[in-house]
Structure prediction request, 276 residues.
Amino acid sequence: MSELITAGRKRVPRALDSRSFPGVGPVAIAALVFLYLPMLVTTIYAFNSGDQALVWEGFSTHWFGYVLTNHTMIDTAVTSVQLAAAATLTAVVMALAFALAVDGLRRRGSALANALMAAPLVIPEVVLAVATLAFIRMIGLQPGFLSLYLAHTTFCIPFALMPIRSRLDGIGREVFEAGADLGATAVPMLWRITLPLLVPGLVSGALLSFVISMDDFIISSFLSSAGSTTLPVYLYGLIRRGPTPAINVVALLLLALAVVVTSFTYLAPKKKRSES
Prediction:
């Protein structure tokens, strides 16, 4: 215990004390500034009254009204939400089925199956986009909402699978063995034991998939068509024609949505535990 020192309320090993590495603190601060300063600038310039995105001409909420009444922008936002919701729901169901199936194949190639499923996480997205477009063409589909739905579902599955697998591994097989000893068959065990215990992983996987789908640009730009343009693709078109504060307003609204969702998912489990 002599190797431990007190840092605030927590005791950390001396070897991990940041004071032993003088450059760590400034680098960490620089990383935080680099990460959050652009968001602060975007938030401030969302209230710019001028026509240029980064030329301040005075405070105004004019561009909020413009964004909220721009039918094209609203339509692309609705398309993105519908696409993300549909892809997330399908991806979570397929990831759950895959996780349960692989969990029963622990000794028969589960590692290979997991590696194949996780491979899209490290494959360059442009490669996935080209391959997906070629496959979509090969099966006779055209770029549009259905093609986007299939593509988004495909690349969302690994993201949904990660928290589900992590949660499933953390449950412990003794829980299922106890259920089997009490006479539970496969279906009741799935509905009454497995799914309730997997809820945190399912929620995390769904949120991660939804955000990834909403944020995707490369694959969406390959598969979008008239009437199925997603919000990131539309915003990129606006930026190429000359950015306006409307871009900052959309970014601010998406950031606010992310903060609300993240806060809810972080605080809701704590409130539930405190009530129990």
The two ends are 35 Å apart (CA to CA).
